[in-house]
User: What shape does this take?
Amino acid sequence: MNQDKQLSFEFKTISGKKVTSDFSGGDVTSDGGVLLLRELADRMGIIDRLAEVIPDTRHPGYIRHDIQTLLSQRILQIVCGYEDADDCDALRSDPGFKTACDRLPSAEDLASQPTMSRFENALSPKDVYRLADALIRQFIASYDTPPEAIILDIDDTDDPTHGAQQLSLFNGYHDDYCYMPLFIFEGLSGNLITSVLRPGKRPTGKEVRSIIKRVVQRIRTVWPSVGIIIRGDSHFATPELYAWCDTHRVQYILGLSSNAVLKALAQAALSAARRGYEHTGKPSRVFRQVRYQAGSWHRELRVIVMAEVSALGDNIRFIVTSLESSRPSFLYETAYCGRGRMENFIKDHKNALKSGRTSCHRFTANCVRLMLHSAAYMILHTLREKLLTGTDFATAQFDTIRLRLLKIGAEVREMKTKLRFILPSSFPLKKVFAVMHRKLVLLA
Assistant: This one.
């Protein structure tokens, strides 16, 4: 405390009085909203699900922080914007985070950075597999009743690396050394289903099929009759995936890379689009469907051609689908282009929650970190979908929710029979906070 008092600052005087500040506040937290996160995570059961799949191989005589407490501390700190394990050293004594981890402010401090780093590096590839499966089970548990159908939006993104991380590869498209984490979201709700950290290269067809197979089989174990549609861009359009989906009652609508044969098949649509543009002077789109089978495909498939002509020139796009009944324009403009929402989901995961902080040397440890950030995504997504409906923050980005609703200064008073968080009277969003708490109670 004396050391903190040395960090004092002087400011311009007011009415002849000197204005100073220091970091000697004691039991004060800058994250009063973490109380809501604690209650929400408990009702979701997400941290329990993750903790139960991680075996604790440590010597019982040296354990000061159990697995569940370590997970709670790390995940809730990520939600509140502290993505680095280094932050544990300062936040281990924060009364807000101690309370969120079911520990009184007067009790022993939470884990330090070395303890948290040892935990992340102690897990095995089998543990990572179990964590990924726990995320899928959490996704399934988020539904009160089985849905009739779900959409699996699959995509990857670059995660630049800056050191000697294992399996960091140079990616020519992104022109950088990176990882390529792959995400699967439910396209209608934005729920995260699972995430996979991968080396910095495009996945092969066998790799995509393996990931989809595991996810679909896990979902169908609980929902055997659910309809499933897979959406993705062209580098997920592989013959291995087509063949597997056709034999397992899974539909797909995927981008398709152009080639000379497809361009020839699209000439009639392109000519019609040109005539429309010449006649009206406005951008003209024409849709056609063709039957096409590449040499590596197991059968002939339906390909949708979108030919567009505008002042910018010609634009030809292709998608391949197993859906036979819908109109070509609907399949392209609504069904396929609807996957654009996934960019916002990835943005929340990658930018707001800083899931690119994969700076461990060991690849497995970085996989663990991605799982923890994915759990943080699930908590914040549930908060937005369940607690903020009907408010101005119902569609807010994660970082906006954090800065406006979770970053609340609070004095913490521990008394004989209760623990009191004193929030600022001037907090402008106290009514929204009250709405969140009321809906949280109803989730019980």
Remarks:
- The chain has three domains: 2-122+362-442, 125-257+322-352, 258-321.
- Residues 2-122+362-442 form one domain.
